[in-house]
Design a protein that fits this description.
By secondary structure, the chain is of the alpha/beta class. The chain contains 21 helices and 15 strands. This is Glycosyltransferase.
Length: about 475
């Protein structure tokens, strides 16, 4: 196995959103285990997210720059979790103002980094790396299919701009999407707007990177990864996922979790039959409207299936804005068959319990990988961002999942939702395929597996760089 004998120095630049920063920290942990010297660039409010990594690897240097801000962001916001998906573009544009300070910092170092590994939302960093004369390596927290689609639409924007149905006939299985199901960055893009031009140019710049690292694995996306290698014209396309399986202490443990609640969850699960429980959760950012929550709870009630529902604690303002909490009386009506968790839940641990047989999810990439690792089928309700593409990969391409609803504003028919939940949870074929995919993911990260070989490949490539 390759390692950096002489502490080759690498700068890591994560994008401040939970689904982005944690996988990149897991990859950073791997680089540290291989002897690299690491500096991580963050803004002050994102520094605590590094705590688990810093306590495991005290040698890590942090490079902390004040967040330059953006006119459309509330004062003090430095992470997408504080503003939701709409904060991506202004945070990308705000961080791009750090280009000058980063250049100055580099020039002042006696042992500057010999490569920059950056999140794919920060594509402007690629031009900075070129100016510095060091390789820029892009870290994709997502799958290969999404990346190919983003690259294609940004490079040929004019051809896709006005289409209501977008087809990718050159790709294996010819994915097709209605416009509303394309990635949010494409739908929200405003031509000529300075903020959005930074976003678009960044995605295009990613194609020029020295290498690309993906949080995916061959058995899941070999067709699309092969396609990307052809498009990029080199072999430095590394799929090292699921990185949370290979990873390490990149995860922050919630210190404010009620131990009693945790105990109640697992005591309840221990009493359930294998594969009988549906876990229902929609990620860290998404809130359901009152109508959606009512429909979901009625659907769960009608399904006859055992379930755990994670519902966020809403503020008075969110309730006023029309978001929904669990309806009055629901918990009593499903007592014994359903469990409602208000607030944060230990998702990975719940998915890993033998009683869980399905995950009703928004199909965010991290949730998709967590379900795959647990061998649990997904019941998809994609809403925004990359979620429709991820759902297509699982439902139409892999045939390992079922779609129960789609759209951020859709209110499913509760009777139909209950029927679909009941059908999916009783479908042994879906459960078998989910377990097969889990076995392939576990195989990929073993020594000699495809992800482990790819990780060794990127380590070897980086360790050959000289300052």
């Amino acid at each position: 196995m390759s390692s950096s004998k002489n502490g080759v120095h690498v700068l890591i630049f994560p994008f401040p959103a939970q689904g982005h920063i944690l996988p990149l920290l897991d990859f950073t942990h791997q680089l540290l285990l291989h002897g690299f010297k690491i500096t991580i660039l963050v803004t002050p409010k994102n520094l605590p997210i590094l705590d688990p990594l810093l306590s495991t690897h005290p040698s890590v240097q942090t490079l902390v720059f004040p967040f330059p801000g953006h006119p459309s962001l509330p004062a003090g916001v430095e992470n997408v979790k504080d503003v939701g998906n709409s904060g991506n573009a202004p945070i990308i544009a705000g961080l791009s103002k750090l280009r000058g300070p980063i250049l100055e910092w580099f020039k002042a170092q006696s042992n500057p980094p010999v490569a920059i590994v950056y999140d794919f939302f920060l594509g402007w960093t690629q031009d900075l790396a070129q100016e510095l004369g060091v390789p820029g390596i892009v870290f994709y927290t997502s799958g290969g299919l999404l990346v190919f689609i983003l690259s294609e639409i940004w490079r040929n924007f004019g051809a896709y701009r006005d289409l209501s149905l977008i087809e990718f006939n050159g790709l294996p299985k010819s994915p097709r999407f209605v416009r509303e199901h394309m990635p949010s960055v494409f739908q929200k893009y405003k031509e000529g707007d300075p903020t959005w031009e930074i976003v678009r140019n960044g995605f295009i710049a990613n194609d020029k990177s020295f290498g690309s690292v993906f949080n995916t694995f061959e058995a899941l996306e070999s067709e699309y990864l092969g396609f990307l290698k052809k498009e990029m014209g080199h072999e430095r396309v590394y799929s090292i996922g699921p990185i949370n399986l290979v990873g390490g202490p990149g995860r922050i443990v919630k210190s404010n979790v009620d131990v009693g609640v945790n105990e109640r969850i697992f005591t309840w699960l221990d009493e359930c039959d294998d594969g009988s429980v549906l876990y229902v959760a929609f990620g860290s950012q998404k809130l359901l409207t009152k109508a959606q929550m009512e429909s979901l709870t009625i659907g769960l009630e009608k399904s006859g299936v055992r379930f755990i529902l994670v519902a966020k604690q809403l503020t008075a303002q969110q309730l006023e804005e029309g978001y929904g909490s669990v309806p009055e009386g629901f918990e009593d009506r499903v007592s014994g068959r359903g469990l409602v968790i208000k607030g944060w839940a230990p998702q990975v641990e719940i998915l890993g319990h033998r009683a869980i047989g399905g995950f009703l999810s928004h199909c965010g990439w991290n949730s998709v990988l967590e379900a795959i690792v647990a061998g649990v089928q997904i019941l998809g309700w994609p809403m925004e961002a990359d979620q429709f593409i991820n759902a297509w990969l699982l439902v139409e391409n892999m045939k390992t999942s079922v779609r129960v609803c789609e759209g951020a504003d859709s209110v499913p028919d509760p009777i139909e939702l209950g029927r679909r939940i009941s059908y999916a949870m009783g479908n042994d074929l879906f459960k078998e395929m989910a377990k097969k995919l889990r076995d392939e993911a576990l195989e990929a990260v073993k020594i000699g597996g495809s992800s482990r070989r790819a990780l060794d490949g990127i380590v070897r490539e980086l360790s050959q760089l000289q300052s």
